[in-house]
Amino acid sequence: MFPERKVLLVVNPISGDLDKDVIFEKVIAAADAGGYDLRIYQTTGDNDPETIREMVKNINPERVMVAGGDGTISMVAQSICNTDIILGIIPAGSANGLAVDFGVSGSLDFALETAFGANVIGVDAVRINGDISLHLSDIGLNALLVKNYENSDTRGKLGYAREMLKTLSEHQNFRVRITTSTEVIETEALIVIIANAQKYGTGVSINPTGNMSDGFFELVIAKKLDFIETAKILTGNTDFNPEIMQVISVQQADIECLDTEAHFQIDGEYKGTVKNLKAEILKGYVKVAVP
Ligand SMILES: Nc1ncnc2c1ncn2[C@@H]1O[C@H](COP(=O)(O)OP(=O)(O)OP(=O)(O)O)[C@@H](O)[C@H]1O
Fold this sequence. Notes:
Layout: E1 6-11, H1 20-33, E2 37-42, H2 48-59, E3 63-68, H3 70-79, E4 86-91, H4 97-101, H5 108-115, E5 120-128, E6 131-133, E7 136-140, H6 141-151, H7 156-170, E8 174-179, E9 184-189, E10 191-195, E11 217-222, H8 227-235, E12 245-250, E13 252-257, E14 262-266, E15 269-274, E16 276-289
Parallel strand pairs: 1-2, 1-3, 3-4, 4-16
Antiparallel strand pairs: 5-6, 5-16, 7-10, 7-14, 8-9, 8-13, 10-11, 11-12, 13-16, 14-15
Helix pairs in contact: 1-5, 2-3, 6-7, 7-8
Bound molecules: adenosine-5'-triphosphate.
């Protein structure tokens, strides 16, 4: 007899620098101890969302464990949204901002205990122009940095620092109009962040009151900053400063760039330039196992 309780493990073999063999061994042992029938899928970078959806439909797992970075976690979350399937997170990316925001940081054993544990919450998502953001998306300075970093051939801290200097010299502020159900804000901006979570992968806490389950997201609007202040934010050396940033908590918002198109990124992935964004909260989008 096959056990009724099934679990699917999705592993991105190329993410971060973690030895995936250790993850396989530990998940196999934990699934065995919990009486789960374990299935494994390694992502290929080609048609993964479709394949995972199909596997989820056929296997009907109680949980899906994901070992990868933010991109893989977000992809798997979108494959099981609005179901009772529980997402278990095993951080294995280069930055793991999403996992950190879920409180899943530290040892692999801790992540596994959490991923197989009983504490489960419904996590919201933000739909932005039809795409899904679980973490932090923005227009302006940081999105340009994401673009420059994606296009550069150096990786690591040095590459990041080089792209940051390039970004700071290229960036221009833009005029933006933000319309919510209660107000219209028109301002010059360096960056407008659409924040479901609190922290960037660099560790900088940009939205200290953010809660991923409250049915709201925040708009964090940073007006003109000086060079040093901006560099500190981008490198994760300073946290949210209420004197230079405005935060509003909303369920939906329209964002219009008034004079020029602005660079746009969703959860660390560059999306090109945009003039208009429509953002709305999707409450209880996916069930996630948390500490
Ligand atoms: N087998 C594979 N070969 C090449 N690319 C892959 C493969 N599997 C997944 N990918 C790609 O990996 C990317 C997602 O990476 P992911 O976000 O998980 O890790 P990361 O970039 O190391 O971490 P972080 O988001 O924390 O910086 C996607 O672009 C996906 O297409």
